[in-house]
Amino acid sequence: MQLEKVYEPHYFEPHWAQWWIDNGIFRADPEPGKPVFSLVIPPPNVTGSLHIGHMLEHTEIDCTIRWHRMRGDCTLWLPGTDHASISTEMMVKRQLEKEGINRRELGREKFLERAWQWKEQYGDTIKRQMVRLGASCDWSRERFTMDPGRSRAVREVFARLWERGLIYRAEYMVNWCPTCQTVLSDLEVKHEESNGHLWHIRYPVVGTNRYLVVATTRPETMLGDTAVAVNPEDARYFDLHGKTVMLPLMDREIPIILDEVADPKFGTGVVKITPAHDLNDFEAGKRHDLPRIQVIDENGRMTKNAARYADLDRF
């Protein structure tokens, strides 16, 4: 028999990887009195594929698992995937759009059916990759975060944490997508630099003939301003500490606050604070107990809080 000059892994590895699974080589069957070692795979997203970080992590875990198995320990590497529901929702939504189907007209139950169909069809990419690489998981125990047992356990844990006062529900700044009609994680937001424009707006100081000039790239959010901030070390505004200004267009009196969110070297050194529409402003609002007024809705249009600008597009 003549050997190939170059090792061709695709001739051999898929066969043996599947043979290992079919013959239960990696099954973890408990034996009384035998040392036990187990690891749970940090579940990759069902919508994704393996990247170099997974490769490094899985190699380290596999080496550890195989070492314990060779020591004679009862060894389990438990595989599984995370539902990544926001990404899955986006994938299914795109699929429905290609078919000319509106997901909101489809309804919740039918949409969930399509999500499960998508998972069955496309959600095993990572598993196939791990099997191909020869990861020594006990695939008979594979788990998915939306399996009934896992899902119930999550609800139970959250309920217990709530009852013990260890978690709470509150408002927070999120990445809302008006097109997808859902929240996106920080990892799913693509930031792009563009040439913007600074708008300079005069806020009359109540009881004086002076103005505070605010420089902003987002004038549409000013309708929800609940304060303007100056840096406590900025000598230009020492005499205005404790005073108020009138919010232009809305004729609402709002305070001048002292906060380091205002950078004396940027713009005029005066910053409008809109706690419902900017993460830094949200934190500043918490520090100064400011109200949060939402002036842009889930569809990207101005709300009734925008007074005469209600229902206009944000642009």
Q: List segments where confidence is low: pLDDT < 50 over at least 5 consecutive residues.
A: none
Given the C-alpha coordinates, what overall shape results?
elongated
The largest pleated sheet is described as: 4 strands, mixed
- Total number of helical segments? 8
Tally of structural domains: 2
Distance between the termini: 73 Å
Instruction: Classify the fold: give the CATH topology of the largest domain.
Output: Rossmann fold
Task: Report the β-strand fraction as a percent range.
Answer: 15-25%
- The Rg value, from CA coordinates, equals 28 Å
Strands of the largest sheet, in order across it? 10-11-9-12
Structural class: alpha/beta
The assigned CATH architecture of the largest domain is 3-Layer(aba) Sandwich
H/E series: HEHEEHHHHEHEEEEEEEEH
Which percent range fits the helix content? 25-40%
